[in-house]
Amino acid sequence: MLIGPNAKLFVYVIARDFGFAPNPFFGSCTLATCKPGIRKGANAGDWILGVAGRKLGKSIHRKCILLMKVSEKMSFESYWNDPRYTIKKACRNGSQLKMLGDNIYHIDADGEWIQEDSHHSNPDGTTNLVNLDRDTGKCDQVLISDYFFYFGEQAIAVDLQAINYTPGVGFKRIVLNSSPAGKALIENVHAQNKNNLNCVISDPCQFLDSHQRVDQGTGKIFK
To answer: Pairing mode, if any, of strands 47-52 and 142-145?
Structure first.
């Protein structure tokens, strides 16, 4: 079933699109960092729509970069230990895809968080405490999808006005059972792109800068 009877749609702005959050590589799309409210509130069967922020360029501003159906939800520790997602562990001296690995958090023997050297670490690879707190402090959950459309820099137009969404800070939660427009949006994207299901249709908007890192507190990008 494409849309379940209790499904919700979470809509948010993707301000930075490196391929880290969301991470559409290696056959699954994962949201393992950033957006703690969505990671906490969404469950299996819910949908997530990510639209391009202003800084990603006028040509795709407010267009759909990502539409994914949540297949699984698990803790960071479970994600780290699951052999299916070992391939998503970050490797900063690896390929671009490995540099952007989002499987970066686990807990040591003393119950303390470990942040692996990653896109969310400091430039020297040490723990970025701001990013660690934002990623783990409010929500110990990772969303995983095996049913997604990732458009990247070829983001597509969707009818945001019909679902009364104005891009900004935070996210919008829509109960699809009472939103014909929300259902129609998902059905239209699916119908027009079903041949590209679970594919990276185009590179992330900032994929060429995959070596860079970000501080969520300041928004600063480190080369």
So the answer is: unpaired
CA nearest 200: which of 19, 12, 14, 15? 19
Model pLDDT for residues 165-193, shown as the tens digit of each residue: 988 878 999 999 999 999 999 999 999 99
Q: Which helix (H) or strand (E) holds 64?
A: strand 64-69
d(CA 216, CA 105): 16
Q: Specify the pTM.
A: 0.96
The helix, strand and coil proportions of the chain, stated in percent and rounded to the nearest 5, come to 30, 25, 50
Q: Contact, 29 vs 88, CB < 8 A?
A: no
Token readout for 223 is 């080369």
Dihedral, CA atoms, 67, 92, 141, 63, nearest 10 degrees?
A: -20
CA angle 14, 1, 185 (to 5 degrees): 40
- Dump pLDDT digits (tens) for 87-118: 999 999 999 999 999 999 999 999 999 999 99
